[in-house]
Amino acid sequence: MIKATLHDIAEKTGLSVSTVSRILRGESKTSPENVELTIKVAQEINYPINTRLLNGKYNYRKRIQVALITNFYPDEFYSTFFCGFNEASLDFNVTISLYSFDPQKNNLSDFITQLSYNSIDAAILFLPLFQDKDYEELLRSAPKDFTILSVAPLFNPILDTVTFDSYRGGYIVAKHFYDRTYRDVGIITGPMNKNEALLRKNGFLDFINQKDDMNQIWKFVGDYSFESGKKAFESYNSLRKKPRAIFSSNDYMALGFLEQAAMNGLKVPDDVAVAGYDDLPICNYLHPAITSVHTDYEVLAKKTLNILTEKMVSENSSSHSGILSVIPVSLSIRNST
C-alpha cells in the first residue's frame, strides 16, 4: 500500500505543499475553508495527522472522538457494554468508536499514540487484566496531552476510574439468599487475577460471615465462560452435601451451570437456586428466568463521559489522582431463586 504524502494533499486541494505543511503543523494563518479542506483530504487519504493539535489550533471539528478500548469478544456482554456507551454518547458532543486491544500483540502506549495521530481525542479503557504496573507504564509513555479514563475496577486506582460497585453486587446476592432462607450456599467465582471477581467474592463472603446461621460450603473458580459453568456443575454434583443456593459471578457461568442442572433432572429453584451477575438480556428469556445483579452500562457511560469531557477542557487533562467513582448496582430478582 502506497503511503499518502503532502504532495497528494496539495494536488487534491489545489494548495501548495508548503501551505499544506504549515496547516498540518498548526502554524498556518490561511482561511478556515483551506484549513478544513486540507484536514478533510488528509483524513480521506489516511495521511497521519495530529487531530488533537489541529483541533486546538483551528477548532475545525465539532465532535470529540473517543476510543473505547477493550479486549473485545463477539458476545452478548460486549454488545450490551458498547450499546450503553453508544446510547450515552447521544447526550454528549462525542462519537464513540470501539477498538479491540490484545496485550499479547500490542503495547498499549504505542496503540494509544497511533490513535492520537488518527482522529482520536481521548480513550476509555476497559482492560480488567491490567494491574497497577501496567497503568503506571501507560502514564509514563502515553502522549502527555491525551485524556484517558478507566472503567475497570482496581483496588488502588492509578488512572481516574469509573466502575460498578462489584463488592455490593456480591453482598446483595448473599442478602437475597439469606432472605430466601437459603443458609448453605456456594459460589462460582471469576478468575482471581481480575479485580472485579475478587470484589464480587468478597462482598458475598462478608455478608455470610456476619451471619452465624449462614455458611459457604462450596467454591469453584471459573473463568467467566459458559464451559466453566458446566464444569462447576460437575464439581457441585459430586458433593455429598450440596449448597442450597449458588452465586455465579457472571451470567455465562450461570447459564452453563443451569444447562447441566436441567440435563441432570434438577429443578430450579426447588433443588438449587442460582443467581448471576451482569443481568444480560438473555436472563429474561430463559426458563426459569435468571436472578442477576443489574449493571446499567448507560449510567456508567454517562458518568464516564461527563468526567472525560470535563478533564479534556481542564489545564491538567492528562493528570490523574486515582479518583474512583462507583456506580450502584441492584438485583433483578427472577424465578431462578
Task: Summarize the topology.
Layout: H1 6-13, H2 17-24, H3 32-44, H4 51-58, E1 64-70, H5 76-89, E2 94-100, H6 108-116, E3 122-126, H7 132-141, E4 147-150, E5 161-164, H8 166-179, E6 184-189, H9 195-209, E7 215-221, H10 226-237, E8 245-248, H11 251-263, E9 273-278, E10 291-294, H12 297-312, E11 324-327, E12 330-332
Parallel strand pairs: 1-2, 1-3, 3-4, 5-11, 6-7, 6-8, 8-9, 9-10
Antiparallel strand pairs: 10-12
Protein described:
42% of the residues lie in helices and 18% in strands. With 337 residues, the protein is of the alpha/beta class. A 6-stranded mixed sheet has the order 7-6-8-9-10-12, sandwiched between helices. The protein has a 4-stranded parallel sheet with strand order 2-1-3-4, sandwiched between helices. β6 (184-189), α9 and β7 form a beta-alpha-beta unit. α5 crosses α12 (297-312) and α8 (166-179) runs parallel beside α9 (195-209). The longest helix has 16 residues, at 297-312. It is elongated. The protein starts with 5 loop residues before the first helix and ends in a 5-residue tail after the last strand. The mean pLDDT is 91.
Summary keywords:
single chain, 337 residues, alpha/beta, Rossmann fold, 3 domains, six-stranded mixed sheet, four-stranded parallel sheet, 12 helices, 42% helix
Q: Would you kindly provide a brief summary of this structure?
A:
This protein is of the alpha/beta class and 337 residues long. It is built from twelve helices and twelve strands.
